[in-house]
């Protein structure tokens, strides 16, 4: 596409150079620039992208977009705000894919990955090819690709959406993180349906207060509902959790139609007569699409909420309850979420991505509902992230567990001992239950598994699907599931 066409919608711009220059791609990272690309310089939190213009040019950039005039031997576009201009340029360059692709965005503190996976699974089962973008990976059909952020920058998003359309997708289910919303990573993306899971404490290092955090997630609902059409399939819908008080606030901030789901409060899609076991959940689903008994392999009350959110989306898309039931019942779980590690032992080992106070409490409460023996919990907190959740998570672990082992998660650039000390501050002297601190996560997991007796449950919390541990800025191979398996085997070989 010609540079002129890409920047045509921008009101404030100054161009030095040939507007007819052919642009092959848009890049915001100089290290990824290829011949013919437009490089957009963004002012980041760590560095200023303007510093890398020379590097981008040496890699073959055909033009640059900047906020301050520079002299260069390629066309230069000067705009007041490159981040804002980037959203419009990306939408134009990729020919507005979200006008064709039905994008379902899921936001909330917990449950985004699980819910997007359930939605993708149900839609794929109806031969509605669906892409997925989120914490674990990006999926297009059966293929899976690595991602750096849960919600990628808008240039990557629009490129992926166009690609999904080219691959025959009708839908994309994407996780929309609060960071992503505040940083404008979804600007210019038209959502078909926006889903809210819940709001509890996390990321206060970034958002500072719960109110600001609520408003960050609210940005998704603010941008929804102004596209009114006579075709119901074209109208946008907000799917809200009736049991979370924040939903009322979001209902007030969106122009879209609202559908609610829940368990405790009156809702359009709800679960009644819930039974939770170690291997699944059963409930009566009552909805605007009819009633049906559900028998899911997903464990925990929190997963009923995720299932209800996915059911709401499916019903909005006209899928029958019988088909939704069949599809949901076939799902055994989501990678690293309440995942069982089985190596012939007589106790249960679960790896779960609970890295927030609420998700940890939910995971432990669920285990308490079915455990026959003791609960042993291995938990840590990430470095360079919300410090205020550390003492709270340790306190929750200690409250619900018979033995807690406080260890490292991803310390990133922080000293692990200090993170652990901040966690321990939350439990010291609360009661007489036992806890240990073991800095090395591998050792902590081995210790926990060696302590387990028949019918106990060992919960390894915080890292779920992750296959690395980041210490001092370096990522080492580390997979809780493999480490747990090795621990079970070493215990067996020791007799
Ligand atoms: C705090 C935060 O969100 N940071 C994001 C931000 O980084 P930054 O502002 O520090 O960027 P920077 O390093 O200063 O670089 C500025 C610009 O220079 C460019 N650059 C940089 C170096 C170079 O050699 N050449 C070059 O061109 C960069 O590509 C960028 O465009 O922009 C980067 C590029 O888009 C993101 O990858 C990065 O996410 C980091 C990795 C991160 O950890 N983010 C987390 C907090 C995050 O966003 N998490 C949410 C999920 C949270 C949840 O709900 O659980 C997510 O959506 O992933
Ligand atoms: N609806 C829910 N409510 C509360 N806790 C949940 C819910 N769904 C999942 N969890 C818990 O939170 C953990 C993370 O779940 P999931 O990965 O689906 O959330 P997420 O919102 O994608 O998290 P992240 O912000 O890290 O991407 C799970 O391992 C589980 O313990
Ligand atoms: N999306 C979350 C993931 C946290 C996972 C946990 N293992 C950690 O490293 O803190 C974040 O970036 O805060
Ligand atoms: Mg996620």
UniProtKB/TrEMBL annotation:
Mur ligase C-terminal domain segment(s): 336-464
Modified residues (N6-carboxylysine): 217
GO cellular component terms attached to this protein's record: cytoplasm
EC primary class: ligase
Binding positions for ATP per the UniProt entry: 108-114
Positions contributing to meso-2,6-diaminopimelate binding: 385, 409-412, 462, 466
Residue sites binding UDP-N-acetyl-alpha-D-muramoyl-L-alanyl-D-glutamate per the record: 30, 149-151, 177, 185
Residue ranges of coiled coil: none
Swiss-Prot/TrEMBL cofactor(s): Mg(2+)
Annotated motif Meso-diaminopimelate recognition motif, positions: 409-412
Residues annotated as transmembrane: none
Positions of the Mur ligase N-terminal catalytic domain: 22-94
Record field: catalytic activity: UDP-N-acetyl-alpha-D-muramoyl-L-alanyl-D-glutamate + meso-2,6-diaminopimelate + ATP = UDP-N-acetyl-alpha-D-muramoyl-L-alanyl-gamma-D-glutamyl-meso-2,6-diaminopimelate + ADP + phosphate + H(+)
UniProt-annotated location(s): Cytoplasm
Family: Belongs to the MurCDEF family. MurE subfamily.
Cited function: Catalyzes the addition of meso-diaminopimelic acid to the nucleotide precursor UDP-N-acetylmuramoyl-L-alanyl-D-glutamate (UMAG) in the biosynthesis of bacterial cell-wall peptidoglycan.
Protein name per Swiss-Prot or TrEMBL: UDP-N-acetylmuramoyl-L-alanyl-D-glutamate--2,6-diaminopimelate ligase
Species name: Thermoflavimicrobium daqui
Name of encoding gene: murE
């Amino acid at each position: 596409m010609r540079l002129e066409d890409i920047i045509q919608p921008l009101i404030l711009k100054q161009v030095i150079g040939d507007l007819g220059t052919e642009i092959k791609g848009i890049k915001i990272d100089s290290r990824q620039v290829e011949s013919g690309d437009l490089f957009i310089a963004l002012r980041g939190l760590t560095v200023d992208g303007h510093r890398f213009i020379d590097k981008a040019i040496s890699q073959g950039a055909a033009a640059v977009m900047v906020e301050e005039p520079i002299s260069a031997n390629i066309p230069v576009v000067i705009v007041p705000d490159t981040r804002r201009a980037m959203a419009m340029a990306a939408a134009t360059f990729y020919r507005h894919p979200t006008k064709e692709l039905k994008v379902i965005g899921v936001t909330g503190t917990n449950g985004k990955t699980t819910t997007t996976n359930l939605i993708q699974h149900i839609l794929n089962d109806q031969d509605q090819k669906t892409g997925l973008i989120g914490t674990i990976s990006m999926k297009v059909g059966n293929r899976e690709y690595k991602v750096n952020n849960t919600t990628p920058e808008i240039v990557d998003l629009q490129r992926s959406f166009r690609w999904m359309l080219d691959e025959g997708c009708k839908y994309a289910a994407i996780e929309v993180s609060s960071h992503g919303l505040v940083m404008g990573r979804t600007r210019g993306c038209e959502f078909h349906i926006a889903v809210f899971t819940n709001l509890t404490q996390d990321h206060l290092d970034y958002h500072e207060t719960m109110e600001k955090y609520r408003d960050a997630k609210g940005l998704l609902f603010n941008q929804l509902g102004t596209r009114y059409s006579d075709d119901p399939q074209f109208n946008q819908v907000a799917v809200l959790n009736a049991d979370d008080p924040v939903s009322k606030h979001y209902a007030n901030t969106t122009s879209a139609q609202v559908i609610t789901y829940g368990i405790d409060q009156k809702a359009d899609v709800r679960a009644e007569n819930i039974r939770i076991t170690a291997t699944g959940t059963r409930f009566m689903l009552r909805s605007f699409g009819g009633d049906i008994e559900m028998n899911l392999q997903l464990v925990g009350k929190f997963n009923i909420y995720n299932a209800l959110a996915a059911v709401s989306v499916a019903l909005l898309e006209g899928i029958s309850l019988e088909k939704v039931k069949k599809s949901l019942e076939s799902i055994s779980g989501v990678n690293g979420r309440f995942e069982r590690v089985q190596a012939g032992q007589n106790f249960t080992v679960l790896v779960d991505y609970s890295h927030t106070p609420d998700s940890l409490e939910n995971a432990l409460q669920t285990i308490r509902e079915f455990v026959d023996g003791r609960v042993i919990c291995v938990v840590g907190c990430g470095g360079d992230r919300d410090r205020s959740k550390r003492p709270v998570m340790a306190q929750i672990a200690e409250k619900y567990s018979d033995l807690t082992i406080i260890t490292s998660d991803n310390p990133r650039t922080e000293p692990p001992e200090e993170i652990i000390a901040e966690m321990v501050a939350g439990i010291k002297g609360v009661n007489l239950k036992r806890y240990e601190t073991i800095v090395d996560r591998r050792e902590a997991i081995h210790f926990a598994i060696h302590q387990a007796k028949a019918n106990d449950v060992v919960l390894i919390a915080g890292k779920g699907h992750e296959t690395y541990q980041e210490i001092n800025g370096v990522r080492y191979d580390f997979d809780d599931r493999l480490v747990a398996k090795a621990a079970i085997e070493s215990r067996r070989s020791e007799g």
